[in-house]
């Protein structure tokens, strides 16, 4: 068994999945003393070979606006209004890149030059103020001489800046007024009356400049408004955020439900997701060739559940292969590539398998196999956490059900500790099954013909005889009992079948019994005991010259019941399915 991670590490999530947002307090609480008691309880569940499903099974809500309660309709309308306003304000646009370092240095130097005269004048005032108490009252006039001087020094700098703004707006006259303001600077008043007159003149000189600058600024603001066209539409998963597209409501409802219909919080999440997609380069990533064939068995889509949701499998036991592990997580560059590959796989799955129609399929089922998964303290830990965070923040409500199979006891313990901090909505989507109960748990949500052989089902790639459209029959063989399966056969036809008993350790045989009275029974497969390590699926075929039936017998001598799966197909003499 791989090194057992601590419950806290397990709580950090071992799989890269589309996860529901969990509170940040989980990691802090994971170290509480209650962990030991929770671990014992979880171990007891695992020992019993049971499956654990969170309280209250999740039922997917409708995306039809007519089906929404009035408060949710109101929230959706408010959300749409906020989106329209945000589009008009450019809130979904990435901010411009920061200026280069050289430009920053020049701006700082210019600012220093502008501030220097003011600082020198301020320093010149300090000695004068310090001497002030020692001088006689009639000489108090000297500070008054200095004040207009400071004002005169400050005003030209301000007016010059305003003149530059006006010049950029193509207003020439304010630029001509700036030198006049500077010419007034050398005329230093020698009496208090002259100081007042100089200040008034400086104000009068500045007024035309200020008015012109204000007018230019107003014109600058009005020009874009007059010229601005409608904001460029924003799409997410191929769906526009505003407009008459019927899929828009389904996408917006995902963000609202993820934030419990708190409109402002949903808006913040949507804005953040759109900007992240632009920064991450989702559009170009979809076309990128990341060439990661080693991971095709780690994460893949296969079939659909009983309600039509696509199923994504996460199989982390594949990382036991050290070569595969190193190719995925060997260094920082490889880990970054893995993250992009995982996001790319998810995006392609969403675009190809979800339609976002009001009555369509808008979410998926995830199956996470924890058998032989790597310990949490490996090279993959950081990128796994990063991926989980990205998926939580940017892919809301994409999980209809999440089934964990082959769950070790320590993972159940970790889930127990996390459970109080998860919302009821999130908990209702999670199902945990020990190794003994994994296939049966999967069959509750996914038909056996859709479940890959490695997880207990009958689906095989490139099967020459059966497809997912050939349904599977499930039977339970009681302890110390025998089951006989009869399959009708027509004249001059060939019948094929396949059978699987989970865990085997049973006796199995097959024979053909003709319908004609007095005809002899033909033994097709001699009865034998099938060990646990037998091939997972047993196939058979028989070409019948006359009508009759194939009888498959399975005897269970064990003290526990067994799950049996089988299906059959009759072909004509030409080899075509009937």
Task: Write a brief caption for the model.
This protein is α+β, with helices and mostly antiparallel strands. It is 43% helix and 18% strand.
Radius of gyration: 38 Å
Strand order of the largest sheet: 1-8-7-6-5-4
Q: What is the count of β-strands?
A: 16
Mean pLDDT: 77
> Structural class given helices, strands, pairing?
alpha+beta
Amino-to-carboxy terminus distance: 48 Å
Q: Low-confidence segments, ≥5 residues, pLDDT <50? A: 1-48, 126-227
The number of helical runs is 17
Largest sheet properties = 6 strands, mixed
Shape descriptor: elongated
Strand content: 15-25%
Helical content (DSSP H or I, runs of 4+): 40-55%
Organism: Triticum urartu (Red wild einkorn)
Family: Belongs to the patellin family.
GO molecular function: lipid binding
Protein name: Patellin-5
Description of the molecule:
- This protein is of the alpha+beta class and 578 residues long.
- It contains 17 helices and 16 strands.
- It has helices at 7-11, 25-29, 35-47, 70-88, 101-131, 141-168, 173-183, 192-227, 248-258, 263-280, 282-287, 322-329, 332-353, 381-394, 409-418, 424-427, 438-445, and strands at 51-53, 235-236, 239-240, 299-304, 310-315, 364-369, 399-405, 430-433, 473-477, 481-489, 493-501, 506-514, 522-530, 538-544, 548-556, 562-572.
- The strands form four sheets. A six-stranded mixed beta sheet has the order 1-8-7-6-5-4, sandwiched between helices.
- α5 packs antiparallel against α6 (141-168).
- The chain starts with 6 loop residues before the first helix and ends in a 6-residue tail after the last strand.
- Mean pLDDT is 77; it is low at 1-48 and 126-227.
- InterPro entries: CRAL-TRIO_dom (IPR001251), CRAL-TRIO_dom_sf (IPR036865), CRAL/TRIO_N_dom (IPR011074), CRAL/TRIO_N_dom_sf (IPR036273), GOLD_dom (IPR009038), GOLD_dom_sf (IPR036598), PATL (IPR044834), PATL1-6_C_GOLD (IPR056794).
- This is Patellin-5.
- It holds the Pfam family GOLD_PATL1_C.
- One of its GO terms (molecular function) is lipid binding.
- Residues 288-463 form the CRAL-TRIO domain.
């Amino acid at each position: 068994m791989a090194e057992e991670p601590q419950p806290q590490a397990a709580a950090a999530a071992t799989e890269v999945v589309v996860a529901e947002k969990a509170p940040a307090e989980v990691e802090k609480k994971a170290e509480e003393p209650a962990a030991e008691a929770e671990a014992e309880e979880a171990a007891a569940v695992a020992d019993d070979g049971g499956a654990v499903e969170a309280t209250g099974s999740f039922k997917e809500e409708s995306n039809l606006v007519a089906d929404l309660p009035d408060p949710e309709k109101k929230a959706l309308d408010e959300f749409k209004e906020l989106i329209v306003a945000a589009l008009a304000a450019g809130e979904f646009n990435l901010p411009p890149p920061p200026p280069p370092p050289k430009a920053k240095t020049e701006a700082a130097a210019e600012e220093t030059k502008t501030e220097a005269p003011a600082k020198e004048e301020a320093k010149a005032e300090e000695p004068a103020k310090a001497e002030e108490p020692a001088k006689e009252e009639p000489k108090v006039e000297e500070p008054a001489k200095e004040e207009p001087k400071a004002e005169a020094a400050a005003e030209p700098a301000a007016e010059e800046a305003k003149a530059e703004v006006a010049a950029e707006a193509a207003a020439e006259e304010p630029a001509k007024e700036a030198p006049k303001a500077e010419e007034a600077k050398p005329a230093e008043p020698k009496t208090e009356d002259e100081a007042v007159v100089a200040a008034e003149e400086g104000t009068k000189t500045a007024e035309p400049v200020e008015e012109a600058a204000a007018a230019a600024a107003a014109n600058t603001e009005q020009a874009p408004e007059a010229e601005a066209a409608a904001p460029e539409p924003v799409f997410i998963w191929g769906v526009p955020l505003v407009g008459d597209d019927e899929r828009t409501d389904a996408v917006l409802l995902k963000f609202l439900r993820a934030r419990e219909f708190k409109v402002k919080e949903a808006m913040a999440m949507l804005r953040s997701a759109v900007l992240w997609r632009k920064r991450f380069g989702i559009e170009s990533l979809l076309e990128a060739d990341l060439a990661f064939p080693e991971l095709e068995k780690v994460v893949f889509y296969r079939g659909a559940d009983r309600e039509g949701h696509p199923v994504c499998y996460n199989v982390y036991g594949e990382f036991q292969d050290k070569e595969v592990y190193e190719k995925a997580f060997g260094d920082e560059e490889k880990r970054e590539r893995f993250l992009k590959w995982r996001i790319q796989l998810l995006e392609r799955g969403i675009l190809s398998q979800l339609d976002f129609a009001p009555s369509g399929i808008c979410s998926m089922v995830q199956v996470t196999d924890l058998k032989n998964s790597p310990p949490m303290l490996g090279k993959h830990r950081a990128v796994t956490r990063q991926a989980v965070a990205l998926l939580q923040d940017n892919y809301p409500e994409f999980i209809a059900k999440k089934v964990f199979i082959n769950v070790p006891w320590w993972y159940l313990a970790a889930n127990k500790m996390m459970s109080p901090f998860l919302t009821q909505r999130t908990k209702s989507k999670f199902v945990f099954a020990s190794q003994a109960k994994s296939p049966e748990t999967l069959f509750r949500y996914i038909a056996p013909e859709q479940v890959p052989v490695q997880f207990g089902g009958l689906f095989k790639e490139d099967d020459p005889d059966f497809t997912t459209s050939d349904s599977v029959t499930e039977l339970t063989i009681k302890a110390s009992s025998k089951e006989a399966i009869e399959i009708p056969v027509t004249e001059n036809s060939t019948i094929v079948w396949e059978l699987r008993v989970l865990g085997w350790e049973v006796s199995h045989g097959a024979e053909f019994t003709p319908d004609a009275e007095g005809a002899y029974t033909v033994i097709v497969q001699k009865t034998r005991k099938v060990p646990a390590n037998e091939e997972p699926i047993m196939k058979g075929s028989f070409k019948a010259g006359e009508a009759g039936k194939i009888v498959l017998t399975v005897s269970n001598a064990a003290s526990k019941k067994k799950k049996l799966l089988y299906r059959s197909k009759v072909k004509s003499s030409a080899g075509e399915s009937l």
